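Incident review: delayed structure delivery

Summary: a single-chain prediction request sat in the queue longer than the usual turnaround. Root cause was a stuck worker, restarted by the on-call engineer. No data loss occurred. The affected request and its eventual output are reproduced below so the record is complete for anyone auditing the incident later.

Affected input:
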Amino acid sequence: MSLELFDRRYKEWATAHRGQNARAVDDDEHGKIVDLLTNHGASEAQTLSSKQRRWLTVFSLVDYGSTMKLVRKGTELEVVKTSEIFGKIHEMHVAGGHVGRDKLKSELAKKFYNISQKVISRYLGTCSTCEEKRKRPRKGVVCKPILSEDMCSRAQIDLICFESEKDGPYAYILNYQNHLTKFVSLRALKSKRAEEVAYHLLDIFCTFGAPAILQV
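Output delivered after worker restart:
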């Protein structure tokens, strides 16, 4: 992880997109806002510039005991100055186990007012751990299909229960399917006893031939 690399990329992006990140607050501006809120009241707003009047509208100071924090007015969302952005993102990114952009953005938005998605993306581009993870080959789940070469190589049977909707004495259906052709043979059963199942299977085998593999 490189603070220098992040600073360079951030400055390049900020220069190329000047004015597009309305929430960006550099260190100098952050100090001026804190000084304004500390030493001026709303009653003196008429003597201030339009930018200063906006600061009084948007920001406020909250006392956290030993420190005073600049926050978005009406919330507890901290306003982060440029020099602290890397540290704030890095701390939460590592604590979360190197979470991805969207999760990181969601967690940061709960605490900070002015860390944008584009800034987060610039940070993630400097994370060596995430870069290593991206380079690792992904192993997908590969299912090898079962192939049948002739009609009697494989077949499958299932017993379907209809006890709640019996048709007279018949409560089950034997479903026999040839794997190659997908041809289905059905037999009505009174029970699922082995003798009755075997009787109907023998009838099917005598009609189509016995499979080499019978899958249950």
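Verification: DSSP finds eight helices and six strands in the chain.
Action items: add queue-age alerting; document worker restart procedure.
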